[in-house]
From TrEMBL:
This is Uncharacterized protein. The lineage of its organism: Eukaryota, Viridiplantae, Streptophyta, Embryophyta, Tracheophyta. It comes from Aegilops tauschii subsp. strangulata. It comes from the Eukaryota.
Length: 52
């Protein structure tokens, strides 16, 4: 039988460029709220590059 929901096995990252704009998505499965906040803080610290 199908599981009640699907979750990620590991961390994933996707980058897409649309009309010269770059969109970056980062996702990961976390066990609890504390881990979620830690993940968000880590993602917010990732370097961003601006190309003009």
């Amino acid at each position: 039988p199908p599981t009640p929901y699907t979750t990620l096995v590991g961390r994933v990252r996707c980058e897409r460029e649309i009309k010269r704009s770059k969109f970056i998505a980062v996702a990961a499965s976390v066990p609890d709220e504390r881990a979620a906040m830690s993940f968000l803080n880590e993602v917010l610290l990732l370097p961003t590059r601006f190309v003009f």
